[in-house]
Amino acid sequence: MVNLILIIALPLLAAFLIPLFNYINKKLPSIVVFLTTAINLLIIILNYNQIILEPVIIELGNWQAPFAINIYVGTLELISITVISIISLIIAFYNLNHSNFSSESKFHTLYSIIIAGIYGIVMTGDIFNLFVFIEITTVAAYGLTTFNKDKGYEAAIKYIIIGSISSVFLLMAIGFTYSAVGSLNMAVIAAASNLINPGLVRIISLLFFVGIAFEAGILPLSIWVPDVHSIAPSAVSSTLSGLVFLAGITALIKIFFNLFADPSLYVFLMIIGAISLIIGELIAYQQDDIKRMLAYSSIAQMSLVLTIISVGTKYAISGGLFQLFNHAILKTLLFLTAGLMIKYAGSRNISDFGGIAKKIPLIAVGFSVGSLGILGVPFFNGFVSKIMIVNGSLNAGEYILTFLVLFATVIEMAYYLKVIQTIFFGKISINPHKIVKSYVPIIVLITVVFLLGIYPELITKPLNQATGELLSRSDYISNVLGGM
Amino acid sequence: MSLFYYTFIPIVIAFIAYFLNKKIKLSLAILNSVVFAYLFYQISRLYNQWNIPHETISYYMFDREIQLIFQLTPLSWLFIFMTTGAGLLIAIFTIKSQQEYVLRSSFHLNFAILIGSILGVVLAGDFLTLFIFWEIMTWSSFFLISSGEKKAAQKASYRYIILSTIGAYLMVTALFIIYNQIHTFGYNQVAAHLSGLPITESIILIIMLAIPFIIKAGVFPFHVWVNGAHSNAPKEFSPFLSGLMLKVGIYGVILLLYFVPLYNILKESVNYRGLPIFNYILAIFGCITVITGTILAIRQEDVKRLVAFSSISQMGYIIMALAISTPLGFTGGLLHLMNHMIFKTTIFLSIAAVIYRTKTTKMSEMGGLIFKMPVTFTAYLIAIIALAGIPPTNGFISKWVIYQALIDKGYIFLSVAAFFGSIGSFMYVFKPLSTIFLGQLKPEHENIKEVPFLMQLPMFVLMALILLFGILPGLQMNLINQISQLLNIQPVGFTLYSITGAFGKWNSLVIFSLFVGGFLLAFIIFISAKKSKQVGLMDTYTSGEYMDDPEAYHYAYQYFRPFDRVFDSFAARSLTVIYDTFAQNIVKLGNLFRKSIVTGNGQTYAFYMVLFIVILAFAGWII
Amino acid sequence: MNFRKILALITIILLGIFILQAFLIIPEKGEIALNNFGKADIENRTAQLYIDKSVNSTNEQVIYKESKDKESGSANIVTSIVANYRALDTLGEVTVLFLAATGLSAILYNKKHAKSNFILKEDSFILKNGIKILFPLLILAGSYIIIYGHLSPGGSFQGGAVIATAFLLKLLSSKEYELDENILKIIEVTAGVSFVSIGLYGLYAEGSFLTNFLETGTIANLFSGGIVPIIYITIGLKVAVELTNIINDLMKA
Amino acid sequence: MIDFLEKWSFFGGSVLLILIGLYGVITRKNLIKIFIGLSLMDTGINVLLVSLGYVEGGIAPIITSTINNNSYNFVDPIPQALVLTSIVIGVAVLALGLGVIIKIYEKYNTLDISEIRGLRW
């Protein structure tokens, strides 16, 4: 067993070393980042079998579990970090060839750190540590956004303003929680949460929601998303949309299922999510800019996940989580291919992609695989999660919610198909701007999509276990606190 | 060979062929034909082997193992046989016809997937399997329709997929409501459960289950996708779309009405003339479909659109016949289903052949092709005779049985509609005949030749089938009676060349002999009479005047104008407008959100954030 | 005042009411709520364990210059929290600073080698010579604050900031003054890497990341607290360098 | 009365600081002023955190020759450690933000946030 803290420490170490590597060779930083992500995947694979048996609690600095920072890796975290490691590896591979920025080494530094931050958000078992990792992730994202020298600054400034405000609220929530409970450890707070005055729980959980949901794609808070995701370089967009959102939702789940499991809060989450879902889809339909469309679609998907998870039953949660992981994989694929298409066509408008499939077939196929996956076509991974979502929400008797979700999917279908039709059947109207090649990441991602679509057992079995763990807080508490 | 493989062989082969296609140009079409031929052979050997055991694949989902069941019944055999047969004929047709078609490889890929998925739909033994393959079928056909050469193809396929998806989602919702109560998707268990539920609940669930099938069959309120899709799809796909895809919808209706014995479930609900209200409404919808399809078909200027509307109206017959749930009705419905598949495929193939040569679908741009393309003309002629329901073709027999069924039960309105449709079909099928094949040959079509043999072959086969089943309906009745037995319906009496109806017996052999006699007589008169003199068409009715708008003078243009005028106001307010308005309103709503929320001002975004907290806080106080 | 401002004001007031009511909640029996002002409950809580240095060991008195080998043996308890009990937070925080510096230099990359255009007038005599005197003093003060961070108030962040101020003054004083970026980079890399490496060595030696693997010595000795002062020095260097970098970049933008 | 004032001057005052900062952020159009608002908010939240950990008559948690761990009231050390972290993060974000503002000024020639709307809808 290799200590899982390494998957946070190694990217950080790599990031700190990058200025040195850059001094040696300009190409070295990207290779180093690629190697770190590969080692991370290896570490996770080595640990997989053990963690699936029972959750692992890593005590940092050899301090007894609830008193200092600890890292908790249960099944949910395990699946998350596995997905994150696979995707980050793919994106790092993509970066090997596609990161010709003016300050390339800095790009790789930021990328390496954002990955560490994402791992941290997912794994940490301490609320202040969660704040720190969220800040690492967002600050890295601010920096990465500005690598687009055209409109990146504008997107970044909006992102920074919103991010700073919500970090204040997050800190406030942490302060209140600490003042009431006297500890920052999630398990201790969970154990004490029944004792906290319900009014205070309301306030704290709302503040937590505001502080985290801005990184999780819930609409009034994540209104910066389309700007940032559409402007940032494709590798960044896919990281932000696939991984940061995944981490954000995981953090929300931790807060609302492990920390404050108050069912009356779920109704709020469900309503917020549903409204955000419909508005996100409706706006996405209007977009001409392909990356903006994808960004709105991410918002909608995340809202969908939140809504479904907040139904709060076993089936619904496992469906929502599956959708979350699918979305991470699919959005990475979509943003990478969309970025390549933009590079090729020299335009961001969907109408300029007419017949592009004949010139760059693999990329076009990759894009359509991603879209079909999101739309839930059988044998794509989205299908299983979609029917799991329908099953979950109907199982809980949420008929209106089911209707809304399916309605949203129809709108989603409308705009994704517009793109697919244009790129495959549209009139050829492009004079190629640049020759783009990127086979390996796209092929790997397509393989993953079909693998999960045809053998969903790969993920549904662990997911059921994860859902079980989420719903039994007492297990979580006793796991961390031991015999206390 | 395991049933499971029937669905996956075409799909797997399709992908292999797709990659091969880069190297060898025609490999896709040929490989597809070979695969379909092989499947066709295998399936024909399955006839009468109804006791093949079920096959299951288990899938781990929702916390438990879920079985995907594949099973073979006479009903599903009929459909897989038809599917592979039609697929084979069309694949052979495409070998030659698609040489200049750009999206050829995508066409074949999707076509093979489509065939596989239809086999899956029909062989499915439970609703989840059905749903999975149903979705794949929808998607592959969506890509097929969008690969049409016209720009409108994309819009048409768009409408098709949206409608289909709405239907599919209704179905999946109903399925999972049921699943959550009984934890299985099996046909029999679902049926048993439905019959145990309160009547309103089960009717709602059944309607939700039925809607995707009704949409796919193109029945009245959901027929809006049919004409666009048929007329804009690639010319080789239209035959399949009309001949088979619509029938898969019918398969679902049969499945619900008979296989899952809906009739029994609904018996206790409100009845009208001994028919459960659901069935009666379905029959009424069928009848409206017949009328709408007919009227709209008469109005068309585009030959593919015309035939598409004709398909809609013929679907109406089948639905009507199946919905009335008598042995005769069931038999008539199934007969018409097979026959319609045969003659409609023929019509579309012959039109595809014409398009292949003339590169246009507008009737007013064609004319006089009878001597240039005699085989195509013959195929079209025979097919429209069958479509109009004239003996000795198969179309007559099925229509005859349907009339018998309707009149027997005394459904006056339905019978009148059926007759109206029949008369209307005379009008609209005659229009392409006279404008494409008869009339004056356009100067630019002087050098047209008959299509290559590989394209003629499917037409020959289909022509033979039309006549064969017209004379020997007993071949079909044999299978239909086996299906009837399976579904506990009383069989209809028949011999090889006769069918027993409600008011007597139809003996096609006698009629055929009479027709052959009459035809010979007419032929003798024709060759012994004096030849008519050929005069240029323009000469007769322009009288030497100068023409400023030649198209308006082409006699195909507004062929049935007086008749159209009667229905002008009706057609203007078509359903399409209603659907489009609905969609546009949603778009407007989205635009409103977009313009008012996403202003681009970072400060406003920050303000939303604060506002959001405040609203949530107060909502928290209120609740 | 326009409508927008009034609306903003109302919203802000409502938000204030919402937040402030948290302080007004009076817990019922058995419930817990926010502590009243000045009544922060640290008895029987994690904070007390930190103060008693008894997270892993038993509760004993910690006496100045007498107690030996207490866990995390630094006299300044905040320091022992920052650099030992919750060292991962600190690593994260250093990372954020590093990120900001990196991001800033990426943003302002194009004008990297431009001269500072921040100073409007020619160099003032008093500024120039005053800074000459102040500069070593500031560096000294900063170093002292960093090195004594585990014993007395202050610490690496404060000390780092003081050192960075020294360079800020240098930069302000003269247009000609240029920082050697290579040296900055070397310090930056060394500091960051050694922080993580110390953590990793702990993982290697004691099986846990950022473990205090050195002997903690006697409370309040300069050489006490195990890895705490070492970490603090690395942090101090890192903070100083990053802040200097940030200032440098901003001034040259 | 003194208690009351003391309590509200810290809790209420820090919340007021946050609110003033927030008001500035959502009403001032100048980007620099917005960032001043943000840093006010940061300050406010730091004061709030520290005051949440205040113990009446408490002193800084440092062991000296006269003070050992049992003899005196210490204030809660954890919030202080947290504040240390949050200050640094605040500084980092502020620095990054100012860098971006410089670039925005170069590009748009204005600091008015309502005119920087290249990305919308």
Question: Can you give a write-up of this model?
Answer:
The complex is a heterotetramer of chains A (about 475), B (about 625), C (about 250) and D (about 120). Chain A has one domain (about 5-480). Chain A is globular and about 65 Å long. Chain A is mainly α and about 475 residues long. Helices cover about 75% and strands about 0% of the residues of chain A. Chain A contains 19 helices and two strands. Chain B has 25 helices and seven strands. Chain B has about 625 residues and is mainly alpha-helical. Chain B has helices at about 5-20, 25-45, 75-95, 105-125, 125-145, 150-180, 185-195, 200-215, 225-230, 235-260, 260-265, 275-300, 305-325, 325-360, 375-390, 395-410, 410-435, 455-470, 475-485, 510-530, 535-540, 550-555, 560-570, 575-595, 600-620; strands at about 55-60, 65-70, 270, 275, 495, 500, 505. In chain B, the strands form three sheets. Chain B has a three-stranded antiparallel beta sheet. Chain B has a two-stranded antiparallel ribbon with strand order 1-2. Chain B has a two-stranded antiparallel ribbon with strand order 3-4. Among the domains of chain B are: about 1-145, no CATH class; about 580-620, no CATH class. The longest helix of chain B has about 30 residues, at about 325-360. The model of chain B has no long low-confidence stretch (mean pLDDT about 80). Chain B is about 70% helix and about 5% strand. By secondary structure, chain C is mainly α. Chain C contains eight helices and no strands. In chain C, helix 3 (about 75-85) packs across helix 4, helix 5 packs antiparallel against helix 6 (about 155-175) and helix 7 packs antiparallel against helix 8. The longest helix of chain C is centred in the C-terminal third of the chain and has 26 residues, at about 180-205. The model of chain C has no long low-confidence stretch (mean pLDDT about 85). By secondary structure, chain D is mainly alpha-helical. Chain D starts with a helix and ends in a 13-residue tail after the last helix. The relative contact order of chain D is 0.13. Chains in contact: A-B, A-C, A-D, B-C, B-D, C-D. At the C-D interface, helix 1, helix 2, helix 3, helix 4 and helix 8 of C face helix 1 and helix 3 of D.
What's the short version?
The complex is a heterotetramer of chains A (484), B (623), C (253) and D (121). With 623 residues, chain B is mainly alpha-helical.
